[in-house]
Amino acid sequence: MTSDREPHLTRRQWLTSAAVIGGTAVAGGSLGGILHHSQGATTASSTSDEPTDDVFFGHVREPFYGPHQAGITSAIQAHASYLGFTFHPHATATDVVRTLRILTHDAALLTQGKGALADTEPELAHTPARLTVTVGFGPEFFDRAGIPHLRPPHLAQLPSYRIDRLDPAYGQTDLLLLIQGDDPTSVAHAARVHTRQIRSFAQRAWTQHGFSYARGTHPQGTTMRNLMGQVDGTHTAHTQASDEHVWLRDSDGDRHVGATTFVLRRIAMTLDTWDEVDRPGREDALGRRMSDGAPLTGTAEHDPPDFEARNDLGFPVIAPYAHIRRAHHPDPTVRIYRRAYNFNDPPTPDNPHTTGLLFGSFQRSIPNQYLPIQNRLAELDALNEWTIPVGSAVYYIPPGVREGQFLGEQLLT
């Protein structure tokens, strides 16, 4: 029998405690990881009848207003939807401004957990889970907006590479919306709201969905693995280097301060043939160990690779064709800020390229930073044997805004 001095749990309290304990286990298997997110996290012994945000993360918000748009150098989210839009032929420069006003207004609400204007399902917006909406302009946008003289001179289509097998279905568009978040429901809701709100002025040309690690499955800061099993993007430029490598400055024009440029490449993977390669062959092609991402000349992922090291036979430890060597440019100013997501779409009879990487690159200058790296990779990269670029587009990402402004206002007013 239960002593009068022993606590007695009701069925509701027992279920609540079990839910909190189970949520903690799924969220990372380590209470320390959760406490790092929020000091003073409520434990499973709390008398509260509801789970805490420290466990479920749904109400965590990313700031919308600021000198730069969110979703660029912020910690990568678990889910992403890239939406490409083209303006209707009848759309005027005034319609372009209206489109940007609507997008800005709705994004400012949705990212903060509020329903958008005339939102028919506002409840879907209440848990944003670090939702961000980043807006970009394609090269032709500046013509449609009546400001061709303000288009950055380096914003142009990439050159044609022999490795490309580009599908027009994933080609250049006038507008880009990059919607990211830790909850696929809020991401999907934001995509639907934005598409519905601007359909009088623009139509969606394509949608590309991507994913990274689910929040809580790995310690914060863990480098994502792509679907070839590789630790992907170890040498991405750090946020503290962003002012130099990412953002446009006064010398680029007063109206462009705080902006950046973005390259989106859809890279399909031929995993069936990759499966035939043994581990030493994979590591030779990559220049890194598959187990932990360390360079073949190092012991840990972030060790700098030694491109001069040679083996007992006198051959380079990191081969001339290894991806890590080809992606490394000898000029230290040639750096990009990389933001990539996996994709794994349902296969179709006429499209075998349904698995791969949505490779995103932010940089101040596409010709001075991105192209030198891409040229080296296209020329001689062993991974080209198992990867195929099937989509390509470039965008100008305007600066962030203050409350009351709209994205692109410094260009259009």
From TrEMBL:
Highest taxon listed in the record's lineage: Bacteria
InterPro entries referenced in this protein's UniProt entry, alphabetically: Dimeric_a/b-barrel, Dyp_perox_C, Dyp_perox_N, Dyp_peroxidase, TAT_signal
Region (Disordered): 278-305
A single cellular component GO annotation: cytosol
UniProt KW keywords: Heme, Iron, Metal-binding, Oxidoreductase, Peroxidase, Signal
Gene Ontology terms, MF aspect: heme binding; metal ion binding; peroxidase activity
Range of residues in the leader sequence: none
Obligatory cofactor(s): heme b
Listed Basic and acidic residues bias regions: 278-291
Stretches assigned to the Dyp-type peroxidase N-terminal domain: 69-211
Dyp-type peroxidase C-terminal domain sequence ranges: 224-401
Family: Belongs to the DyP-type peroxidase family.
Protein name (record): Dyp-type peroxidase family
Species of provenance: Jonesia denitrificans (strain ATCC 14870 / DSM 20603 / BCRC 15368 / CIP 55.134 / JCM 11481 / NBRC 15587 / NCTC 10816 / Prevot 55134) (Listeria denitrificans)
